[in-house]
Amino acid sequence: MLGKTLVTKQTGAEGKPNNILLLAEKVSIESEKYFAILMDRGSGGPLLIGSKTGGTSIEDIAAADPSAIIKQPVDIKVGMTTEIAEKMATQMGYTGGQIQEAATLITNLYKVFIECDCTMVEINPLATLKDGRVLVCDSKVGFDDNAQFRQKAIH
Questions:
Q1: Which residues pair with 29 in a beta bridge?
Q2: In the annotation, is 25 catalytic?
Q3: pLDDT of 68-104, one tens digit each?
Q4: Is 32 a catalytic residue?
Q5: pTM (2 decimals)?
Q6: Cα(49)–Cα(15) distance, rounded to whole angstroms?
Q7: Torsion of CA 122, 21, 154, 35, to 10 degrees
Q8: Catalytic pick from 32, 34, 86, 110?
Q9: DSSP, res 52
């Protein structure tokens, strides 16, 4: 895999060079949820999107049950608050101590979104593991090309 061209649905037929390999802990997933932060023109700032269901495309989830999609705008001037993060975690179906764990994760993802000039941070799945931890298992991140001068390490 390393040093080869990776061809997937996301790369297209031409593929992408694979010059870096990241290793991660093997985990046992109990359930999967969806979480994203997008820059939303309609609300004029970041929009949190979540669902109790993950592991499949958000478009399929929305088509099957539009009420399964949770949307929470974030005032760009105020930013993420504990209340917003905990509300989102609760609406996504977390209970007990997992609410705080998920809220901390949501807060940290928001911090990355703002500090790295992201246009999108998509987590699918946001997994609850069999040992009770809440963990990002896969993600997709988009960056604002207009912020390239601030984000030289990313671009």
A1: 129
A2: no
A3: 999 999 999 999 999 999 999 999 999 999 999 999 9
A4: no
A5: 0.86
A6: 29
A7: 10
A8: 34
A9: S
